[in-house]
Specification:
The chain is mainly α. Among the domains are: 53 residues, no CATH class; 95 residues, no CATH class; 63 residues, no CATH class; 108 residues. Helices cover 61% and strands 2% of the residues. The protein has a two-stranded antiparallel ribbon with strand order 1-2. Strand 1 and strand 2 form a beta hairpin. The longest helix has 23 residues. The chain is extended and about 105 Å long.
Length: 477
């Protein structure tokens, strides 16, 4: 019986019934003095693992696996302070893991701009982080260099016994220029030519795809969806037609909405809005809810459907005013303002988006604005003190980073005030990377003046991040 077989038998039946065998003399292993039978068994089990690992060959790892030799790296290596900073981030990061990962992204981007690559000795540690951190993985190339891409391919092939994984750069080059466009085209073609042969689920799915790149020319397919027997298809068609203010359905909704609207009052003008009557067959086809079998009809829901489907200029034609002045007349109608917000944002109607922002705060409206205009709007509202910390934090989180100096100054002003602790707690994971380098000195001053733990935490992280980021910039000069 082989040594490993005897060892397995002793492990199965127990050393009380079967002594652990002595290891083969050829291995040169000697049992520890005065070790028990149980200890001898465990020591030899560890020895078996070492022997098996040491004796593995490429052929035994995977049949037919051939690892090509590593190519020569032509890119110059990052050296000196740049290499030291990368090793520090990988071995002993001076900040928390989230900030460490962002600084790794910063390092890789700086290296790419400076046409420097990661030192070979740091590639395994970098890949270990990137394996579980998508933000780092996405920017590995080109900073990992030729051998880094080779190591990616070899590691993937060796572990998965499959074709080597393409690098990020190669995957981008190999991908179609516009795969989504093909999906839209196929969806339109199938709906146009195979509508009756498609299942209801397929018809609804194809219509949803049109929503990612909706055109006025899709109106015919959506009108066809209004007549579909499947409720799921009709609902998708209605939702998409709500986004086409020049469609025939939008015109029909405008004709239904106009008689319901009036502006009343001499000094304090406001909208007076009636509720619609029971829908006829045409209105039912356009998605206006029918009367329930029992109980009162939901006339507010009918009004909602009409407002969502009608063009926004119906409101200005009734008021005789600009969108901003018209929105002001609706200040006391939060339900209507919410519906108009949905309509304006789904159609990306910037004039109405700006008008509605004068009477209500909504993240959907802000997302429609260009980034610089969004920042300016937020800065003004922060300095005016019109936003609560909870609302402010959610709006700030969605802004592109880094912020401009003016917005950063306004936010730090709030953090240094009486509501600062609450806002600092909600922005602890965003503020360090969102602040521009110009704000670092102000963070240091505020850090020296505050004893509040929440404020100190976020300000300390901001100072550490900006300091390390400055070191990166200088290291790659």
């Amino acid at each position: 019986m082989k040594w490993t077989d005897e060892l397995r038998t002793a492990a199965l039946v127990g050393t009380g019934r079967h002594d652990a065998p002595a290891p083969p003399v050829e291995l040169g292993a000697r049992p520890a003095a005065a070790s028990s039978r149980e200890e001898s068994l465990l020591d030899q089990a560890a020895l078996v693992d070492v022997v098996r690992r040491a004796s593995r060959t490429a052929a035994s790892v995977g049949a037919g696996l051939r690892v090509p030799p590593a190519p020569t790296d032509t890119e110059p290596q990052a050296t000196g302070e740049a290499a030291r900073l990368l090793e520090l981030l990988l071995r002993q990061p001076p900040v928390g893991l989230d900030l460490r990962n962002q600084l790794l992204v910063d390092w890789l981007r700086s290296a790419a701009q400076a046409r420097r690559r990661v030192p070979h000795r740091l590639l395994p540690a970098l890949f270990a982080v990137a394996e579980n951190t998508s933000s780092v993985f996405r920017v590995l190339d080109p900073a990992i260099g030729t051998r880094g891409r080779w190591l990616q391919d070899v590691s993937t092939a060796g572990l998965a016994h499959s074709e080597p994984r393409r690098s990020v750069h190669e995957a981008d080059e190999a991908a179609p220029a516009s795969p989504a466009l093909d999906t839209f085209t196929i969806a339109r073609q199938q709906l146009s030519t195979e509508w009756n042969s498609l299942s209801a689920r397929a018809r609804a799915s194809h219509l949803k795809r049109l929503g990612y790149e909706l055109h006025d020319e899709d109106e015919g397919l959506l009108e066809k969806g209004l007549d579909d027997k499947a409720k799921s298809v009709r609902e998708v068609a209605i939702a998409l037609l709500d986004r086409l203010p020049r469609s025939a359905r939008a015109g029909r909704m405008a004709a239904r909405l106009l008689p319901l609207l009036q502006v009343k009052g001499l000094l304090n003008k406001r909208f007076d809005i009636d509720l619609p009557e029971d829908p006829d067959a045409a209105a039912l086809r356009d998605g206006i809810p029918s009367a329930p079998r029992s109980g009162e009809p939901d006339r507010l829901a009918r009004l909602d459907t009409i407002i969502l489907g009608a063009p926004l200029d119906v409101w200005t034609s009734v008021s005789g005013r600009s969108p901003e002045a018209t929105a002001a007349l609706l200040k006391e109608e939060p339900r209507v303002l919410a519906l108009l917000t949905t309509a304006a944002t789904s159609r990306n109607h910037l004039e109405w988006v700006r008008a509605l922002l004068t009477v209500r705060t909504d993240a959907r409206l802000l997302h429609c604005l260009p980034a610089d205009e969004r920042e300016l709007w937020l800065e003004r509202h922060i300095r005016a003190g019109t936003e609560e910390p909870d609302d402010l934090a959610s709006l700030l989180r969605d802004l592109p980073q880094p912020w401009g100096p003016a917005l950063a100054g306004a936010v730090l002003g709030v953090i240094s005030g009486k509501e600062g602790t609450r806002l600092a707690s909600m922005l602890f994971d965003v503020l360090p990377t969102a602040l521009p380098p110009e704000a670092a000195e102000e963070c240091r001053r505020l850090l020296e003046r505050t004893d509040d733990p929440a404020r100190r935490r976020v300000l300390r992280d901001a100072v550490q991040y900006q300091s390390f980021r400055q070191s990166l910039t200088e290291a790659f000069r």
